[in-house]
Design goal:
With 378 residues, the chain is α/β, with parallel strands linked by helices. Helices cover 30% and strands 24% of the residues. It has two domains: 130 residues, Beta Barrel (Lyase, Ornithine Decarboxylase, Chain A, domain 1), CATH 2.40.37.10; 218 residues, Alanine racemase (TIM Barrel), CATH 3.20.20.10. Strands 1, 12, 13, 14, 15, 16, 17 and 18 form an eight-stranded mixed beta sheet that branches.
Length: 378
């Protein structure tokens, strides 16, 4: 494997990856995750926003050792299911460090969350208020507001969220049903590279806040969701810049004593991860050079379908070619990327996929009998 440190990977992470590959006989594919990168991200995220509380979005990577590391750092967790709750229970994470921001929850999850003592829940419909009042009476709730997702590689504005007037009505309805209308949440979209989205969302949240105040509701919480981007194949706006703009918008629009929640997922684990895979085949099909590897769309790289582009590294000094990269399954949908320039590897060579710590193994299935890659902290 080539020794030069690739772009967007820290020297420390790269050395750890090469060291692990050289000294271990673990059979690929597997995901290596640098624990020090995770620690650095947790120290950074929220640092620029006064009083912000960080709740890691477990869906980004629910590996128990990653969650154990984060739990030891005393941060919170955002979950959406009884499965995610079960992992946190096994780590003895207290209920006060857990929130749930999925506006649509199963009955079983609500029952288990109530029994465990989770207090904060998102919602965006009358039906969800009715469910919450039945399963978790007196809980604290925050309404999901629709905001601009332009500039996000994974928009999240269609499935969930409501506009201002409906949001105000829902908060009033929640109060009528005996719930505690605590505040507002939004999501600017995953992998958001447009820092203005947070400014616009905060402005819109302030409009809703004022309407609620006029209607006798005393809101106290603003949940900014996630969306911080990581570097895949190009530079992105950095966390310090995003939080500087968020902090400025908050100072202009909100009092200092409100509660601020953050729900980073990708930004915590994404660029801490490197997939180690193997080239298992090559072919020339028409004008295309095809490269087949042992991790694909179904068992680890599902986000490639939605447009996420990864950086690949092979240990070859051969001539460069443009490749279509595909996974191991017999399904023609299993195509990871196209027009990727790489030196030609040999079948059996390792291929490393960078910035692959988030939304990879958490999306993975055993379709076609291919196993879900193991996650290993280094």
């Amino acid at each position: 494997m080539m020794q030069k440190v690739p772009e967007f990977v820290s020297k420390g992470t790269w050395e750890k990856v090469l060291y692990y590959i050289a000294l271990n006989d673990t059979v690929p594919p597997y995901l290596l995750v640098d624990r020090e990168v995770i620690r650095e991200k947790i120290r950074l995220i929220g640092n620029g926003i006064s009083g912000a509380k960080v709740f890691y979005a477990v869906k980004a990577n629910p590996d128990i050792e990653i969650l154990r590391l984060l739990a030891d750092m005393q941060i919170g967790f955002e979950i959406a299911s009884e499965g995610e709750l079960a992992i946190l229970k096994s780590l003895n994470v207290p209920a006060e460090r857990i929130i749930t921001s999925n506006p649509l929850k199963t009955f079983r999850f609500l029952s288990e969350a109530r029994d465990y003592g989770i207090k904060y829940y998102a919602f965006d419909s009358v039906a969800e208020v009715d469910k919450l009042s039945r399963y978790v009476p007196n809980c604290s709730v925050y309404v999901r507001l629709t905001v601009n997702n332009e500039g996000s590689e994974w928009p999240l504005s269609k499935k969930f969220g409501v506009e201002i007037d409906e949001a105000a009505d829902l908060l009033m309805y929640a109060k009528q049903r005996g719930l505690d209308p605590a505040g507002i949440t939004f999501h600017v979209g995953s992998q958001c590279n447009n820092a203005y989205n947070w400014h616009g969302a905060i402005e819109k949240a302030r409009e809703l806040w004022d309407i609620c105040t006029d209607r006798g509701l005393n809101l106290r919480l603003l949940n900014l969701g996630g969306g911080y981007p990581i570097r895949y194949t190009k530079d992105v706006v950095d966390i310090k810049t995003i939080e500087r703009r968020i902090a400025k918008s908050l100072r202009q629009k909100f009092p200092e004593d409100i509660e601020i929640f953050l729900e980073p997922g990708r930004a915590v684990v994404g660029d801490a991860g490197v997939f180690v895979a193997t080239v298992i085949g090559k072919a020339k099909r028409g004008d295309e050079n095809w490269l087949y590897i042992d991790v694909g769309v179904f068992n680890g790289l599902m986000e490639s379908v939605g447009g996420i582009k990864y950086q690949y590294v092979v240990g070859s000094r051969a001539a460069h070619k443009r490749w279509t990269i595909a996974g191991p399954s017999c399904d023609s949908f299993d195509v990871i990327d196209r027009d990727v320039e790489l030196p030609e590897p040999e079948v059996g060579n390792r291929i490393l996929i960078l910035s692959s710590g988030a939304y990879t193994v958490s999306y993975a299935s055993e379709f076609n009998g291919f196993s879900i890659p193991k996650t290993i902290l280094i």
